[in-house]
Structures are given as structure tokens and as C-alpha cells.
């Protein structure tokens, strides 16, 4: 078992949702790759400096902005993978699991948007 998995408190769920990162000078578009009750993994075209605490919003879910603590940012061929945890619990694990299950596997588009 990897060190990250040993430290993980909440189960991760695959998820594909757009997220907006409200940085001090600009708003960045990114995608949530997976999420848990305590954090998420994002994919962005622009890097974000680890150690920052920034506001984020998920337009499709119409929930209030929350703060993300950026843990790490790694360049990949697909873009920058950003690991972050939520300042406060964004949602309960059952809701995140439901969102994950509701996405159609073929397109990655949530069924509730079809």
C-alpha cells in the first residue's frame, strides 16, 4: 500500500466536473478527476502553486464557494494534476459516491445533464 493510501481518511470516487479556481489575479478553469469528502484531484492547463489557499466553485452543483488548500501540483502530458483538500467538508461521502455513480461511463457526462 502506498504512503498516500495509508494516510487517506476518505474513499476517493472518480468524478468529472468542471471547477473554477478563484486565484488572486484570475479565475482558472479546471476539471475534478476524483473527489472524497476531504479533498479532490484536479486537472488544469495552468499550474497552481502548492501551499496556496484559494476559493473554488463548482458551477454545475450550485454550491457556495469553498476554500481549497493546494497540496501539490505536477506537470503531466495532459496538463497539471493538482491535489487539494477542502478547508471544510464540501459534501458527505454518500453524495460524492452518488455523483460518481451517476456519470455515464461512455462520455463522462453526468446523467442528470443528459
From TrEMBL:
InterPro entries: PilZ_domain. Coiled coil: none annotated. SUPFAM superfamilies: PilZ domain-like. Residues 6-62 form the PilZ domain. Pfam families: PilZ. It comes from the Bacteria. GO terms for molecular function: cyclic-di-GMP binding. This is PilZ domain-containing protein. It comes from Hyalangium minutum.
Amino acid at each position: 500500500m502506498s504512503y498516500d493510501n495509508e494516510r487517506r481518511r476518505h474513499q476517493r470516487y472518480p468524478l468529472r466536473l468542471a471547477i473554477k479556481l478563484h486565484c488572486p489575479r484570475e479565475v482558472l478553469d479546471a476539471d475534478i478527476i476524483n473527489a472524497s469528502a476531504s479533498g479532490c484531484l484536479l486537472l488544469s492547463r495552468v499550474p497552481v502553486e502548492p501551499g496556496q489557499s484559494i476559493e473554488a466553485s463548482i458551477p454545475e452543483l450550485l454550491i457556495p464557494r469553498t476554500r481549497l488548500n493546494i497540496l501539490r501540483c505536477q506537470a503531466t502530458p495532459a496538463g497539471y494534476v493538482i491535489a487539494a483538500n477542502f478547508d471544510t467538508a464540501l459534501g458527505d461521502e454518500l453524495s460524492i459516491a452518488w455523483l460518481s455513480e451517476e456519470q455515464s461511463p461512455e462520455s463522462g457526462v453526468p446523467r442528470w445533464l443528459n
